User: Which sequence fits this backbone?
């Protein structure tokens, strides 16, 4: 079971993540979109979407920093373990709360608005359920374990195991002793990567960054001047198209 959870599962999920994106791009480019429902409801979306995206960017950045950057490197540049812990806990709590608030608004929008609910697909429901579970586990680890509990230094165990996956040397013994909430969060994270290519999240890789510097689109309408003759009736146009006989 140890090898299955901490070796086979991560590699299988990473393979599905890569192959799924390749398949989706080749066979479903039309569905490579956010499937926006802004025209159906915009009030909750205007509030929930920025909160969710800003919180997600912060959470992803915090995970990347904590898992990929060794503790020895941060100490070498003058950041003590205590200072890193305080900053990461504070930033993680703030961005986590933003993510929770944004996700709650987006889910509520799908539930209370009939028009938005009707265009919500089964995969959307699976995605939102997965996101909610991941956020709950993450907040339980950040707030429940590190802020209210005794704390846990995941950089000495989980981060080392995670980096070992990419070097084909995952140290499974480091995960067997990790707290259950961290184990569930790690398993859920890899399953989430396997789910990613088959959801609307693929739009992340084709973000319309060109919109930031493209010129404005100018719309003009042609208005008929006052007193100008309008378009001719259909009967007049048809008569004008008929050839004129010579009368002979």
Assistant:
């Amino acid at each position: 079971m140890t090898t299955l959870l901490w070796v086979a599962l991560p590699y299988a999920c990473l393979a599905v993540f890569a192959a799924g994106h390749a398949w989706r791009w080749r066979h479903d480019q039309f569905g490579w979109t956010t499937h926006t429902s802004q025209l159906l409801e915009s009030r909750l979306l205007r509030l929930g979407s920025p909160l969710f995206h800003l919180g997600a960017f912060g959470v992803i950045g915090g995970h990347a920093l904590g898992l990929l950057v060794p503790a020895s490197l941060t100490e070498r540049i003058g950041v003590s373990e205590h200072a890193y812990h305080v900053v990461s806990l504070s930033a993680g709590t703030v961005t986590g709360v933003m993510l929770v608030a944004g996700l709650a608004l987006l889910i509520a929008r799908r539930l209370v608005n009939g028009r938005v609910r009707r265009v919500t697909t089964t995969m959307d429901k699976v995605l939102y359920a997965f996101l909610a579970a991941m956020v709950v586990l993450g907040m339980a680890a950040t707030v429940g374990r590190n802020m209210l509990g005794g704390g846990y230094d995941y950089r000495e165990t989980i981060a080392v195991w995670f980096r070992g996956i990419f070097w084909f040397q995952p140290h499974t013994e480091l995960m067997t002793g990790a707290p259950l909430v961290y184990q569930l969060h790690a398993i859920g994270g890899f399953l989430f990567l396997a789910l990613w290519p088959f959801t609307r999240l693929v739009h992340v890789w084709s973000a319309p960054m060109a919109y930031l510097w493209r010129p404005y689109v100018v719309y003009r309408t042609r208005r008929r001047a006052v007193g100008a003759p309008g378009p001719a009736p259909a009967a007049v146009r048809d008569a004008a198209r008929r050839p004129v006989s010579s009368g002979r």
User: Anything to note?
Assistant: The longest helix spans residues 81-112. DSSP finds ten helices and no strands in the chain.
